[in-house]
Amino acid sequence: MSQSRYFFTSESVSEGHPDKVSDQISDAVLDEFIRQDPDSRVACETFVTTGQVIVGGEVTTKGVVDVQTIARKVITEIGYTKGEYMFDAHSCGVLSALHSQSPDINRGVDRKEEISDELDRVGAGDQGMMFGYACTETPELMPAALQFAQQLVKKLAEIRKEGKIMTYLRPDAKSQVTLEYVDEQVKRVDAVVVSTQHDPEPEGVSEAEWQAIIKKDIIENVINVVIPAALLDEKTKLHINPTGRFVIGGPHGDTGLTGRKIIVDTYGGAAPHGGGAFSGKDPSKVDRSAAYASRHVAKNIVAAGLADKCTVQVSYAIGVAQPVSIYINTHGTAKHGLTDAEIQEKAEVIFDLRPASIIKRFGLNKPEGWCYQETAAYGHFGRENFPWERTEKVEELKKALNVA
What we know:
This protein has 12 helices and 11 strands. It has helices spanning about 20-35, 65-80, 105-110, 145-160, 205-225, 250-255, 260-265, 285-305, 340-350, 355-360, 370-375, 395-400, and strands spanning about 5-15, 40-50, 50-60, 95-100, 130-135, 170-180, 185-200, 235-240, 255, 310-315, 325-330.
């Protein structure tokens, strides 16, 4: 029997990437609004460019937030603290253009009429469809290419902030990993791309020599640390700073905007995406909360051993609490003789996907042990400190489907 063989690629970006700078500022502003008023309604967008930060959007809240202080704190934590970067936490301009939320939208989200079930009081903040996904490729039940790509840029940031080796690193970075699959199993890593911002070459060192040093350091201290040796071979292609030089970066090299890295934030292209971004949005916005809930459903189904792969789609109408539709697809990997329809029937009972129920279940308006800013770099999924990553529904699913 012939083997099926294909290649799949995912990418990631570091916390210093301009779009991720924007995401983190938006989520830090959200964190502060929710800390002061858990019922805050926030839709916050951030734009960054050379020496400038603009924060805009719509807010309904009892809180008062110092946007300038929050933005500068986030930029400092990321590492943009030197004037030579042309984007510096201490000197950049910060403009706040936040204003009140439309009352026409708010009336559908916070319903005032008499309702028998309080969990029906919060309607979806908008229409749309959201997707969740899980698979058995990694212990985190996430796609392997994305996990490796996220870990590469995260490792770069850890090394940079430690400041012991590779002291030439600057905050902006990107990664990309291509995996070879044989019969649906990860066989090997076919290619790795790492582009990292760095200091100019020292005096007396040529550009070629400097790039050779950087390449050697990244292979030894990043790639070989993150990617299992068993997946690397002599045919694995390693592209390190393929343009040859990456001194100008961050918001000076490219403008950044909240919500432009939705595939990096989710499943690296391994699953569909409804199109809605996450950062800067309070949990009444189902773009965010329902995507978290969909991941929770998919992860519990896979963790329960009901399937090796699972995609969950849920859709909403603005102002309506109950989902318009729920769809579960195990891509032909369902086990124990189960069908997707049988799994979906039980999942719809076990998982309450009304916005108020999702918010309550995960504590989305009163985060404990985590914050929204944390989600804004290195992915919203596959990280155990987030409540939607819990697998507490495994036994309930097994029992409902008569699976030992």
